[in-house]
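# step 3/5: fold
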Amino acid sequence: MSLVELIAQADERGLAASGLACLDRCVPVLGGDDDDVLRPLWASLAEGGDWAGPLAEARSALGTGGEPAGRAPGGTSQEAVTLTRRMLDAAPAGHSGAEIREWADGCSVAALQVHRLLDTAPTGATRSVAARREGRTDGTTSLSSPLVAAELRRQVRILELLSDKGTGPVGGLRQALDVSMEGRRVLRAVVSRRARGRG
């Protein structure tokens, strides 16, 4: 099943977790070093608690990532920073309702674009990202960027975990968080390598 189809079939909790996971993996481009900055939002999904309060705290904590306003942290691009900040700013006040589906879908696209910007993707890769989300893999839409391909696999895996009734809602969230943490470590390492290369 394609990523687009998985998002279309996901319930509200799955959509919120999918969007949150995309944001969580991209936190390193904001200069965020605190792996727990979004943990209260994960807890809110698991426990059904307040979402708006932890969301406001996350926005405040991430701020400008310790960098001067309008400047991207070393090792990233301004476009990647903008895409990640939009994910955070666009998060709805609650993790239910129609807005959460639009947010999750937007986060999916944005996260893939962030990974494309940090990798050596060929010209035209944006079109390929859209094709892969829809499950099209013909020769004209091949995606050779390993960083983007890995992010796509993580997004699919997380939605599959969240839709698996056998794991239960909390178990699925825990496994989704584990997958997302792995992706965050990968992206942080990429940002760090790029920063060293510019030093």
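# step 4/5: annotate
The chain has one domain: 3-198.
# step 5/5: archive (pending)
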